[in-house]
Sequence to fold (430 residues):
Amino acid sequence: MGTENINILIADDHQMVIDGLKMMLDNQNYNVISEANNGQEAIDLINVNPLKYDLVLTDISMPLLSGTELCKMIKAQFPHIQVLILSMYNNAQAVKEAVLAEADGYILKNSGRSELLQALHRITNGGTYFSQDIVPIIYGQYQKQKVQDEKLNVLSPREKEILSLIVKELTSEEIAEKLFISKKTVDNHRQHLFVKCNCKSTVGLVKYAIANGLE
Amino acid sequence: MGTENINILIADDHQMVIDGLKMMLDNQNYNVISEANNGQEAIDLINVNPLKYDLVLTDISMPLLSGTELCKMIKAQFPHIQVLILSMYNNAQAVKEAVLAEADGYILKNSGRSELLQALHRITNGGTYFSQDIVPIIYGQYQKQKVQDEKLNVLSPREKEILSLIVKELTSEEIAEKLFISKKTVDNHRQHLFVKCNCKSTVGLVKYAIANGLE
DNA sequence: TAAGCTATAGGTATATGTACCTATTAAAAT
DNA sequence: ATTTTAATAGGTACATATACCTATAGCTTA
Fold:
């Protein structure tokens, strides 16, 4: 077997780009086993035999189905397939979309062969790769996640702990036992949670917790 | 208390459309609590207080961030918020995008007030609404959504309806009033839901509903 | 026809949650 | 040094949910 091979599908609406990529990957342990000229073609190919592919190398702007859309579909349906997005642009929106689409990497088309190989290496080893010049852009996206986290931060540690147990379907009494405190204390925390989460019942707390990533 | 209110955010880059919609929704149990002139503004508003909103009514073509992108972000980050997309066009691509973005509904701007209200009613009761003339278009892309929906299909329509209202933080009594049935009936449905959803309390029902896209 | 499911509704009893209070202690912030 | 806050816990009262029952009417399916 030797070093295991990575089976790749390339999606790009310019055949020249595909050919160039294939040459770059020649003599590496990467097999380009399929090509597609747009996202739809790519997803169709994948649908035929999803397990055949380890990684998809895709352009971002393609007719019918864009690279980010393709990525979203892949991640939703075939999460074992990794996705590296190739883009002409390094604008914030495109990167943001790629990040939201859960791409494993994003590099620019003017990247050299070495950067391509580095990105592939990192990704196939379970990591991610984003071009250095777009890292600041990603940080902008970071904040958004933080906003949610910060919301949970208005809850005290104990409140978060109790909310977490509520979501696990424990009753106040069970929570009290588990934390070695009085049921009354738990109920008081619950009351405070209502105020802080701006809701009026445990149902609202559960929704809040899920919406804010506490699970 | 009466029937509970639905808090709505409207996103459209034409103030006239916003004003028109507000008038259409006047005197209904819908509160338009925020307005935005593009998707970015909308998502910023939502980020400030996600739980404030029950539903977003959005145009599809807007500067900075389109309606479908907005929808995707909402569904990814705040799945409790429902989205009804308003479009000028009924072309396949736009509808497909809306479906992929997991919009709860898609209607055309030339729809009348009654269709708008019908769509809102269906959506806020846990269903979806797509203009009749675009239904055939949707079928092609339907598959993905079905996987999740099939889980919910073990629930009877009435059970789904009641589950939906439970998640909206209504008590059994309030649900009974709203549906003109006895509180006992609601409680019986609740019991059946426990069995079908394999959980032991309302907390579990809420988690099930959110996990399966019923909101 | 019989069986099964859905939706309806009632009874009874208990468990749990929710809405208000007050109050103490320790720690953190002003 | 004073004020706030978190975490603790108690009381009382009421609301709501949960666990069991039975039962009927309508509709679908074997």
User: Anything to note?
Assistant: Residues 156-159, 181-185, 188-189, 192, 201 of chain B lie near DNA strand C (CB under 10 Å from a C1').
